[in-house]
Amino acid sequence: MIDRRILSELKAIHNQKDSLIIKAPGRINIIGEHTDYNNGFCLPAAIDLAVFMGVSPNDSIRIHSMDRNDEWDGTNAIRPDWAVYFSGALRFARENNFSIKPFRLDFGASLPSGAGLSSSSAITCGFLFALNQMNAWNIPIEKLTRIAVKAERESGLEGGMMDQISIFNGAKDHALLIDCQNWSFEKIPMLIQNYQWTIVDTKVKHKLVDSEYNDRSRMCNQIAKKCATHFGIEENLRIVYDLYSDHLFDFLDPQERVLVRYIFEENDRVRDMKSAIINQDTTSLGKLLYDGHEGLKSKYKVTCEELDFLVQFSQNSYASIGARMMGGGFGGSTLHLVKEENFDAFSFGISAAYKQKFGFNPDVFKAQISNGIEIVV
Ligand code: GLA
């Protein structure tokens, strides 16, 4: 519904011969959280909720948010908060002497922002994709992905590459098993017979998210350094995982030991999840989701009361066989695997329980696994 409304508005404005309308999806992550910036494994998938952008040649740069109804001209220092997701890409082009013909861009989203579904990456990737097309830069997707990752770091989050790889390369009904060491991926069919991947958005985003995220990423770098010195290898947690994951790591302090243990266990869970999905082994699959959440809660410590409550609800519900938080943490969404025939009862039950506890409803919706960035018109 929202998609159709946004698209018809965009089509009315961007109707010239060289106009472009693109769809940049959000993503879920089946498992493999906080592993991407540690050169590990993750298993995300693009979804049907998306950011839509219409772009046409214009006499000056004008970027307009349809949802907020405000604008930015690409240069003014006084700018809306969302402009940061465009500014990194513009800076890249200017610094690398890539010419940009002036354009008008309007964007609107069916993808909620702040829900841990990568709306910010969808904007940055979508924008770079549009610039690449409109200005005939001919940059291959792999390079565009690397540029998107750097551009997005302007927002302050020192993120990995999981979101951008899945947004550019997603495939309908498939997740991507990404090896973050070399950014390669394998498509894994994701349909689980009689089950529905379900997203529950807590509607909260605790302020901690950026600072705590960067803090974890820096601690992991520190651990990689200590391991490099101890084992006489490169500073890279993946090499440590491949070679020494059975070691006790006495040379790390207790907090570092817990973090590294989480990363190694989560890498194992991604590999085990692949087998569980291929074998349609829903019991193992559900357990891996719950174990992943437990690791994020008690070892990596990036969950919050709202996320833990939703996962706990799932554990007590006959309708759901597994659940975990997704993304950076401290708010955002949980992912549940729900029996198709019980979806309505689950949605009603979890909303009512959450409202009773926190005083407002979460958003519950079905995750439809979709293609990556596409040109719609
Ligand atoms: C955020 C980042 C990703 C990834 C996840 C945690 O979504 O953007 O790169 O690190 O957190 O898995």
List keywords for this structure.
377 residues; alpha+beta; 2 domains; six-stranded mixed β-sheet; four-stranded antiparallel β-sheet; 43% helix; binds alpha-D-galactopyranose
Structural description of this entry:
- This protein is an alpha+beta fold.
- It folds into 2 domains: 4-190, Ribosomal Protein S5, domain 2 (2-Layer Sandwich); 195-366, Alpha-Beta Plaits (2-Layer Sandwich).
- It has 11 helices and 13 strands.
- The strands form 3 sheets. Strands 5-4-6-3-1-13 form a 6-stranded mixed sheet, with helices on both faces. A 4-stranded antiparallel sheet has the order 10-11-9-12. The protein has a 3-stranded antiparallel sheet with strand order 2-7-8, sandwiched between helices.
- The model has no long low-confidence stretch (mean pLDDT 96).
- The site of alpha-D-galactopyranose has 10 residues, from helix 5.
CATH architecture of the largest domain: 2-Layer Sandwich
Rg measurement, Å: 21 Å
Q: Give the strand line-up of the largest sheet.
A: 5-4-6-3-1-13
- Which small compounds were modeled alongside the protein? alpha-D-galactopyranose
Largest sheet: 6 strands, mixed
* Helical proportion, percent range: 40-55%
Predict the CATH topology of the largest domain. Answer: Ribosomal Protein S5, domain 2
**Total helical elements:** 11
CATH level 1 name of the largest domain: Alpha Beta
Strand content is: 15-25%
- Count of distinct strands: 13
* Count of individual domains: 2
SSE order in H/E notation? HEEEEEHEHHHEEEHHHHHEEHEE
Mean pLDDT: 96
Characterize the overall form: globular
Global structural class: alpha+beta
Our measurement of the CA-to-CA distance between the termini, rounded to an integer number of angstroms, reads 18 Å
Q: Indicate the low-confidence ranges by residue numbers.
A: none
